[in-house]
Amino acid sequence: EVQLVESGGGLVQPGRSLRLSCAASGFTFDDYTMHWVRQAPGKGLEWVSGISWNSGSIGYADSVKGRFTISRDNAKNSLYLQMNSLRAEDTALYYCAKTGLSFNYARNWFDPWGQGTLVTVSS
Amino acid sequence: QSALTQPRSVSGSPGQSVTISCTGTSSDVGGYNYVSWYQQHPGKAPKLMIYDVSKRPSGVPDRFSGSKSGNTASLTISGLQAEDEADYYCCSYAGTYTFGFGTGTKVTVL
Q1: How many CB pairs under 8 A join A and B?
Q2: Average pLDDT, whole number, for chain B?
Q3: Across the interface, which of A58, A59, A95 has its CB nearest the CB of B45?
Q4: Judged by CB atoms within 8 Å, which residues 32-51 of B form the interface with A?
Q5: What is the C-alpha to C-alpha distance for residues A15 and A70, in angstroms, rounded to an integer?
Q6: Which of A74, A103, B18, B62 is most deeply packed, by most CB within 10 A?
């Protein structure tokens, strides 16, 4: 069974940094592109960032480009999101998601999703 | 990167059909057959319902179907059931390693 467990969320002041982690199990992690998707309280889903199986292809939403960095450690079956210069509008539940098709970036979908880790940016 | 446009809400009685539209541009929905749909119940993680515009994952009831015409994708729920009441989001690849989600639609079963 595929399991994705996010961690690292919490309360942080504006301008500070936070690093999220996603521990993956139940599948061959280094065959799949992985993504971060967030959801602000009471709001819709927003794609944040994606990274290909070999870290050769990476994408960011305009809203986080230059502030967030996605990475992965295939030896540890782990996905990360380094978030710098955090703003109040970054407050959200951050989901880690596996893609459905191996060795693909563009032609893909998110399945399954973790349960999320909550990031609150406030002074 | 603008969000794809969905109606805020749709509703129907049990057994009826409802259709949710997802309007983008030629740079996302219209440019790729990489549209997916997600169902989200309150307090739960999203669940994949449709991928590649019209394909259904195993375990998803066949009353859920997807289609696309030009820059607009659609999700149809036929034979609406009480458990279908949820929020639904479309998603499309948008080029240059980016994706975009729709604004979300709340489906209410009357």
Answers
A1: 77
A2: 96
A3: A95
A4: 32, 34, 36, 38, 40, 45-48, 51
A5: 18
A6: B18
Chain A neighbors of B93, CB-CB under 8 A: 106-108
**How many of the other CB atoms lie within 10 Å of CB of A64?**
22
Choose among A102, A105, A103, A86: nearest CA to A94: A86
Q: Which residues of A touch B87 (CB under 8 A)?
A: 44
CA-based radius of gyration for chain B: 13
Over its length of 123 residues, how does chain A's per-residue pLDDT go in tens digits? 999 999 999 999 999 999 999 999 999 999 999 999 999 999 999 999 999 999 999 999 999 999 999 999 999 999 999 999 999 999 999 999 999 888 888 888 999 999 999 999 999
Calpha distance A68→A79 (Å, rounded): 13
Of B40, B48, B101, the CB nearest to A47: B101
Residue among B89, B88, B63 at smallest CA distance from B76: B63
Dig out the tokens for A108 from the structure: 């893909």
Token pair belonging to B41:
């119940």
Tokens of B18: 């409802």
